[in-house]
């Protein structure tokens, strides 16, 4: 059985919820990523997700100011998180059901990776060829 751990990206780029959207965009460009995991501020907080989708909505469609808005104002918090031992089939079903392109991967309450729809499909294509 293929698990999330087998497909996830372990090197996740994180950002503080207090950073501005300009800082988030700059970080995404510099690190060449399409999403950032929003850090928890306390142990009981949930992780969040900031992706191109939220930025497009806030900055372009709603004409939000990248210097006045913080990551917290735009990100999806809480983001859906899964355990690294979950099967890829179950993770894909969850993504499909809630129309998500990414899931945060945790072990206990610690961030260990990110699972993207593209990673699942790339693995599927590799296995087919």
Biggest β-sheet strands, sense, barrel: 3 strands, mixed
Write down how many β-strands occur, each being a DSSP E stretch of 2 or more residues. 6
Number of helices: 6
Q: Describe the global form.
A: globular
- Beta-strand content bin: 15-25%
What's the overall average pLDDT, rounded? 94
Contiguous runs where pLDDT drops below 50 for at least 5 residues: none
Rounded Rg: 15 Å
- Helicity range: 25-40%
Placed side by side, the strands forming the largest sheet appear as 1-2-3
Q: Report the structural category.
A: alpha/beta
Question: How many angstroms does the end-to-end distance come to?
Answer: 19 Å
Could you state the order of secondary-structure elements as H and E? HEHEEHHEHEEH
What would your notes on this structure say?
It is a single chain. The chain is α/β, with parallel strands linked by helices. Helices cover 40% and strands 20% of the residues. The protein contains six helices and six strands, in the order αβαββααβαββα. It has helices at residues 4-7, 21-31, 52-61, 71-74, 88-97, 117-128; strands at residues 14-15, 35-38, 48-51, 81-83, 102-107, 110-116. The strands form two sheets. A three-stranded mixed β-sheet has the order 1-2-3. Strands 4-5-6 form a three-stranded mixed β-sheet. Helix 5 (88-97) links the parallel strand 4 (81-83) and strand 5 (102-107).
List the helices and strands and how they pair.
Elements: H1 4-7, E1 14-15, H2 21-31, E2 35-38, E3 48-51, H3 52-61, H4 71-74, E4 81-83, H5 88-97, E5 102-107, E6 110-116, H6 117-128
Parallel strand pairs: 1-2, 4-5
Antiparallel strand pairs: 2-3, 5-6
């Amino acid at each position: 059985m293929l698990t999330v751990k087998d497909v996830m990206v372990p090197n996740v780029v994180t950002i503080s919820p207090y950073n501005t959207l300009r800082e988030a965009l700059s970080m995404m460009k510099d690190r060449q990523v399409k999403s950032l995991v929003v850090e928890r501020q306390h142990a009981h907080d949930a992780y969040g997700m900031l992706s191109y989708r939220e930025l497009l909505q806030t900055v372009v469609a709603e004409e939000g100011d990248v210097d006045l808005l913080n990551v917290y104002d735009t990100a999806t918090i809480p983001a859906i998180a899964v355990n690294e031992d979950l099967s890829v089939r179950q993770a894909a079903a969850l993504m499909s059901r809630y129309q998500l392109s990414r899931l945060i991967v945790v072990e206990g309450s610690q961030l260990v990776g990110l699972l993207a729809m593209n990673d699942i499909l790339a693995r599927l294509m590799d296995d087919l060829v």
